[in-house]
DNA sequence: CTGTTAGCGCTTTCAC
DNA sequence: GTGAAAGCGCTAACAG
């Protein structure tokens, strides 16, 4: 009925251990023998029983994606990148929603990893920054790669994006378009990207010898509503900036709504820029000038270096920082 | 080091088999004995080794979500609903991106299920409608539940939404708002929801003794661009409808853009309605009147009835149809 | 380079 | 109601 390693060994006239060696790509098998085995494998349609492999070797060929309530399109991109990496290596992908505020997060995950013999984890923000949690993983010798951590530890696997540089570049671009009075909406304070983006903005302003106005700098939390509220406040006064840079697209859309409700034309009366190039950026009118991060590629790389690591392949291109692209669209006008 | 069933049996002074009975909730264990065992389980912190269970019993306590390139926010909702159901039962969730056009879809999935001893599958459109594929699953005795199939087979597990009724209701609502000249943008022809929504629209029009105009009925494919193109065509003529109902929100956003580029005010010059209540519906301005389907709940239910089935619990509330809500927002105006 | 043996941790089978 | 024995399919450890 089901073909086992034993059947293959009989068919190929070798020991089962030799078959095992071949299917695990171990050294010390003569080319000749290997070929013989592979022929039998193919002929019989043999597929190793993962449960048996897992029971014996304590690995599952499964990796897990951990996330805590992210933006939906971000999640889909991350997941897709990881999945594609898994496809290439034959690994499978389990997903695990977490609550980063839960007191038994650590235990839940440790049990999860232990139960399924998960080979490694991929963490997304804000999990990427939970040092406690990461230490617990280290202590338990659980392999992981983090996406977009705020502090990049040389000894750990990570992928990151250049939030600071991208925000700096976008701000410079806005300035190049002739804007001198630029507002900024900050992102969620717990999210490491928020301060990076803000710093990029501020430094660009300062380096171009411009000044900021505290009335134009508002605290948001990445939600549409927080952007809308910030916009309402800003547009309430008579003295409004000529451009506003929001730390993400949802907030930028919120600002656009508040501006349009005030009767302000975009981009004629006010220019708007966002960050992320989420689906909405291109489906709103006027379309948003924004920054695109290669999220799927980043996640793909994270999965690749993770799997390379526990397969003993220490690649040279390990952890790395990815560049973002400026996407110029109609919401930004030249003054 | 790791606690096994043997350790528990020693501690509780019963046989291994009895411990096994207890952890699997089998019958024929005296209450007394059961308690004793559970105490030891807790005391020692025993967790059954899934690989061993799986090797022996050929089940994995894993279910899989299969999808083919869906809308990102739809995927996130479906996934979340399934995940929550899994949490309750202790199952794990593996995800599998598919290409429904691939000639080896069937084999890929059969191997996947067989390799991981996946206990059951959840299918999303368009996989839900691939009869070939479903037959292959049946033949191989693979359990599955489908989300939003076009034909609901009594013998299979499914969850569906009332696309037809919802489209009928939304159209009636538009008519109630005084509109007599209503355009419609169809969805992707391969997607079963497309014709249901269109039929709901047409029937509402006819039952209200109104007429349609072929120039106002366009074929789209659920993409923003297809909505935009349809809008450009419609607004190109002098004779334009007073309202347009697009089969999903992305296309509605596309129409809004084409209208606004033409200088048409929404909803003063033209009313727009969408379908799905995707994130964009509420982040665009003016906000979209649309239909909200309880996608997460549907997926949650699908997972529940699937797991109930292979755990031998034949619930009374099996397959079921979920109701949608009309969401009235600014894009629809009373004439 | 190849093979033998033992045993991972559990459930199945069958006996009592 | 309970238990003893066998063995799922594979890999680790060792021997040669």
Largest sheet of chain A: 6 strands, parallel
In the predicted model, the low-confidence regions of chain A spanning at least 5 consecutive residues are: none
Strand content of chain A: 5-15%
Query: In the CATH hierarchy, what is the architecture of the largest domain in chain A at level 2?
Result: 3-Layer(aba) Sandwich
CATH homologous superfamily annotation of the largest domain in chain A: Response regulator
Total of DSSP H or I helical runs spanning 4+ residues of chain A: 13
- State Rg of chain A: 25 Å
Biggest interface, chains and residue tallies: A-B, 44 and 44 residues
Based on helices, strands and strand pairing, what is the structural class of chain A?
Answer: alpha/beta
Count of extended strands of chain A: 12
Give the CATH topology of the largest domain in chain A.
Rossmann fold
Explain this structure to me?
2 copies of one chain form a homodimer. Chain A has about 325 residues and is an alpha/beta fold. Chain A folds into 3 domains: about 5-50, 434 Repressor (Amino-terminal Domain), CATH 1.10.260; about 55-160 and about 295-325, Response regulator (Rossmann fold), CATH 3.40.50.2300; about 165-295, Rossmann fold (3-Layer(aba) Sandwich), CATH 3.40.50.2300. Chain A contains 13 helices and 12 strands. The first copy, chain A, has helices at about 5-10, 15-25, 30-45, 50-55, 70-90, 105-115, 130-140, 165-175, 190-205, 225-235, 250-260, 280-285, 295-310, and strands spanning about 60-65, 90-95, 120-125, 145, 155-160, 180-185, 215-220, 245, 270-275, 290, 320, 325. In chain A, helix 7 (about 130-140) links the parallel strand 3 and strand 4. In chain A, helix 2 packs across helix 3 and helix 10 (about 225-235) crosses helix 11. The longest helix of chain A is centred in the first third of the chain and has 18 residues, at about 70-90. Chain A is elongated, with a radius of gyration of 25 Å. The interface between A and B is large, with 44 and 44 residues. The structure holds a DNA duplex (16 and 16 nucleotides).
């Amino acid at each position: 009925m089901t073909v086992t390693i034993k059947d293959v060994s009989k068919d190929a006239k070798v020991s089962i251990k030799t078959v095992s060696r071949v299917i695990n790509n171990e050294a010390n098998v003569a080319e000749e023998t290997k070929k013989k085995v592979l022929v039998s494998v193919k002929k019989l349609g043999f597929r190793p029983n993962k449960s048996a492999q897992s029971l014996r070797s304590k690995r599952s060929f499964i990796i897990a994606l951990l996330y805590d309530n992210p933006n939906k399109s971000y999640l889909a991109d991350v997941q897709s990148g990881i999945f594609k990496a898994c496809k290439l290596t034959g690994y499978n992908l389990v997903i695990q929603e977490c609550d980063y505020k839960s007191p038994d997060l650590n235990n839940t995950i440790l049990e999860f990893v232990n139960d399924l013999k998960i080979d490694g984890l991929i963490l997304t923000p804000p999990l990427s920054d939970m040092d406690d949690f990461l230490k617990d993983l280290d202590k338990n010798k659980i392999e992981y790669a983090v996406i977009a951590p705020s502090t990049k530890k040389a000894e750990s696997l990570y992928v990151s994006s250049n939030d600071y540089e991208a925000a700096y570049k976008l701000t410079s671009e806005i300035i190049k378009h002739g804007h001198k009075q630029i507002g900024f909406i900050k992102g969620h304070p717990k999210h490491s990207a928020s301060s990076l983006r803000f710093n990029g903005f501020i430094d660009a302003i300062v380096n171009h010898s411009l000044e900021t106005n505290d009335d134009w700098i508002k605290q948001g939390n990445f939600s549409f509503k927080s952007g809308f509220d910030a916009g309402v406040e800003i547009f309430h006064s008579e003295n409004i900036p000529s451009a506003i840079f929001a730390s993400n697209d949802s907030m930028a859309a919120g600002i656009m709504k508040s501006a349009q409700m005030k009767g302000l034309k975009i981009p004629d009366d006010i220019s708007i820029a966002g960050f992320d190039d989420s689906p909405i950026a291109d489906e709103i009118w006027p379309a948003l000038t924004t920054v695109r991060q290669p999220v799927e590629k980043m996640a793909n790389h994270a999965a690749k270096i993770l799997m390379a690591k526990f397969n003993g392949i220490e690649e040279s291109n390990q952890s790395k920082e990815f560049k973002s692209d400026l996407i110029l669209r109609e919401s930004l006008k030249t003054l």
